[in-house]
């Protein structure tokens, strides 16, 4: 049925609320790590959770600007910018504000536009946006394993 | 701006395609585990990846039926149903077909309806649906850590 295929599933405001809910949970996961383990603990040669969180920060703030304007900053993956938990949480909170401010400036038609996001990733922008969120959920799930391996109870997944 | 708040972000068909893309990736993660480790390997007292995948199966098929009909089966968390990788992959593929078949029977207005999903979880159904997907991404991320800890290269996250 065509009706279901083109049905509205979720509004832009609802997507934002979902994402900010995820971001509140991810913040709690960052905060649950002891300082040292946040930057040093790893399993199977993977990145520290600090580096994963830094990737989320560097993708999300500039990403939302790209959604709104079509101007994509170059992603700065390689350098580690945040060296303490406080710096990381501060950057996290700044990004939360950036997302909240810029969101309403995204022209409605943009979600169905195609862009070369960050000059590298071609696709419809709803997919780009979902990638930001899915990437966060994916790596946060990995942070849960790190916390469990460290004997720390992670925050409840359903609590947003 | 109200325009952005109520903008269409993604159609029902696009949500389905995103989800089935995730499901293809999760299937590759299940398949990447050796038989024994799929059912026995664990970090920090967590569940095996087989049990996580079983949860996804039991949530998704009956979940999509609930979205379409408002009839929610009781979730059967506790019993382990699938005992081999083949059984698990077979159930996975059956669920993929179930989702594909039932999706187009979801009345368009349902995504914005409220239900008591599985008789337990109250909320708008777009949120319930996103919970199915997020829960899969979350646990699949944990499966990636298990694979890395086992010295196995997981499938690429962006390959759907």
Automatic annotation (TrEMBL), chains A, B:
TM annotation in the entry: none
Keyword terms of this UniProt record: Metal-binding
Metal-binding among keywords: yes
GO molecular function terms attached to this record: metal ion binding
Domain of life: Bacteria
Binding-site residues, a divalent metal cation: 139
Family to which this protein belongs: Belongs to the DinB family.
Listed name of the protein: Putative damage-inducible protein DinB
């Amino acid at each position: 049925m065509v009706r279901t295929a083109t049905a509205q599933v979720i509004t832009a405001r609802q997507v934002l609320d979902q994402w900010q809910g995820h971001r509140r949970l991810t913040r709690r996961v960052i905060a649950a790590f002891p300082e040292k383990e946040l930057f040093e603990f790893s399993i199977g040669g993977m990145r520290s959770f600090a580096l994963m969180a830094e990737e989320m920060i560097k993708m999300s703030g500039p990403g939302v600007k790209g959604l709104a304007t079509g101007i994509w900053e170059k992603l700065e993956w390689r350098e580690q910018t945040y060296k303490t938990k406080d710096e990381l949480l501060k950057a996290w909170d700044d990004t939360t504000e950036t997302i909240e401010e810029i969101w309403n400036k995204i022209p409605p038609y943009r979600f169905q536009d195609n862009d070369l996001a960050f000059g590298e990733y071609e696709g419809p922008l709803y997919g780009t946006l979902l990638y930001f969120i899915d990437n966060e959920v994916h790596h946060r799930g990995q942070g849960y394993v790190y916390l469990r391996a460290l004997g720390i109870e992670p925050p409840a997944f359903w609590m947003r």
